Amino acid sequence: MSDVPVEVRGLVKSYGAVHAVDRVDLTVEAGDIYGYLGPNGAGKTTTLRMLLGLIRRDGGSVSLFGRDPAHGVRALDHVAGFVESPTFYPYLTGRENLRLLGALDGGVDDRAVAAVLDQVELTGRARDRVGTYSLGMRQRLGIAAALLRNPKLLVLDEPANGLDPAGIRDMRRLISELPERGVTVLYSSHLLSEVEEVCNRVAIVNDGRIAFEGRLDELRASFGAGYRLETADDDAAEAAARERGVSVSRDDGTLWLEGEPQALDALTIELGRRGVAIRRLARHQRSLEELFFELTEDDA
Amino acid sequence: MSLLRAYTWETRKLVRQKRTWWGLGAAVVYALAFVLTLSLKKNAGIPPDIPLAKQVTETAAVLPLALLAFATFFGAPVISALVAGDIVSSEDANNTLKMILTRSTSRAAIYWAKVAAAATYGIALMVVLLATSVIASTIAWGVHGATLLDGRRISGGHALWLDVLAYATYLLPLAVLVGFAVFLSTVTRNSAAAIVGTVIFSLAWQGIAVLPGIENAKNWLFPKQFEAWQSLFGQSGESIGRAAAMCAVYTLVPLVAGWLVFRRRDVAGA
Fold this sequence. Notes:
The complex is a heterodimer of chains A (300) and B (270).
Chain A lengths: L5 E10 L2 E11 L4 E5 L6 H8 L7 E6 L14 E4 L11 H11 L5 H10 L15 H13 L5 E5 L7 H13 L6 E6 L2 H7 L2 E6 L2 E7 H7 L3 E6 L2 H10 L3 E5 L2 E5 L2 H13 L4 E7 L3 H12 L1
Parallel strand pairs in A: 3-7, 3-8, 5-6, 6-7
Antiparallel strand pairs in A: 1-2, 1-4, 8-9, 10-12, 10-13, 11-12
Helix pairs in contact in A: 2-3, 3-4, 8-9
Chain B lengths: L1 H14 L2 H23 L22 H9 L3 H10 L4 H6 L2 H4 L6 H35 L4 E2 L5 E2 L1 H33 L2 H19 L30 H25 L6
Antiparallel strand pairs in B: 1-2
């Protein structure tokens, strides 16, 4: 058995002429909270379905801890999670649904069921039929069902769907703690702020293809450092920046600079020498959202 | 073990679903309606081609047989398909396949557990129908001896035992209906289509069986197997062994076809 939770190479899935997933490569290392991002229809859920053996792939390879899910459920021995919203039998209670899923895992004792229900704060509703649950409660029950397997890899597709702000905060805390318990998380979401908050590595997928895969800081670095400059004479400042080889653009009366710190140092000295007053010079940390749009809209 | 666990939960799920009880309730109503009609209407009877028809109001052992004969055309396919036709497609309706197929039980265990649960329901249906009809007709007419078609006279207790064997024999063609309903449930992913399709399947066979020029093949056709139980009562030309062999073929073909579809199906969509 391999130690690498997820290794995907050249994954392909087509529906007729549409390439839903097009030569996707992913590597999720042990201990990662790995964000899988993309606009609607980018192929995120299709990839996750292939990872969990729910749909057949047209090409490429998938390995979960060294096992191929296409060869049967043994590959999912240390894997749990859900794609799209978790679903249950509406005529069974929350507890019965968990006991059923536990039975399909080889049997589970009632204390384990009670523990995961407690973890997602559903103990009080455990005896109610799932048909009476809200979307957020089903989402929490889905997380409980996943945790019931004591997974080493947790695959979560839009887990914050239907949760209220307190629920999202609790779920974020829960996910953040999982690596300490030896659980790797593959977290698919369109909520970029959520991913930015909890994930250490991301893949951004667009039109079925990976536009970026790596650490968040690598992603930011790949776009260079950004600086915001306000001066008493922006025309002179822009000319000086260009002379110094600093990339410059204007937006709403603000100069946006990109360059190495040494070049920026030289530029500030030069502006002083030319008598151009600097009113503001601040490093601008790009949000994941900005990077995401830059990647996905450029590709589009 | 995983098959047994999956089967246990499939049966538990059936117990918790209304349609299961509707089907069993329909079997009770069906039996009681016959007893009431025959009890209340003077000179009432059942068609003479049903074995022991003339003795229907003389001993409790005959009415259960009449119910079997009448159920063949419509009742058996509808009531058996009510559950068997829903057992896979309900997973599509609830969108639960993606949950159960990502646990540690194989697709094979899940599929065959569903088949076993649907078959269990078929058995329960026969038990309820037999028990209701025997109890109700015993209250109405009592348990008395009966004369078989070959002229042998048997006791009431012996006749009731033959009823049990007749119902057990009737499970053979019922298994064909269950198998076909499970197949349609798997392929169409739609309970209504599976139920209606099973009824059409049964009626189509009844139509084929009355086509001219196929007399020699009739014994091997599906509808004939519904009459195999009559051999227990001295009816010549019927064979339980032949019914067992033919029904095994008629049952396994759709079940294996359903399995091949289920094994390879993509679980996609919301």
